[in-house]
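Question (not urgent): is this output format expected?
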Amino acid sequence: MGRPKGSKNNPKEVEKKRGRPVGSKNTPKVQLPPIAEPTIAPIYGFQNAMKTFGDGGYMVYCNIPDMQLNPDDMIKAVEQYHVEFGQMPTRMILHKRNNHLLPYLYAQVGDVEVALIESTALWEIKLQVPQIKR
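Got this back:
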């Protein structure tokens, strides 16, 4: 079987293209919020957090669509807290794998105490509600 006798290889015309496809556009770069160095070292572990924070109530901010927290979520969580309580948050709880977001948080609230624990979800921030003085 195979090829008939006397047939030749016909060269295929291959068009060589260089560069970008027609109509492609630059994707806009995401502008990240400012970052700041930590002023207060984070607290690690659930027991240490409860010893320091007590067992007060918490307002929870979640980013469920992304199933994770982004730098912009630090701004949104602080804004929601400020609108609801008229002051800046003083204590927050995050999952310990979100420690890379702390510089963005410290840029929003410099003197916030943060606890990094494993028993909270990756996509939520717990902001401690201010105590009502009686």
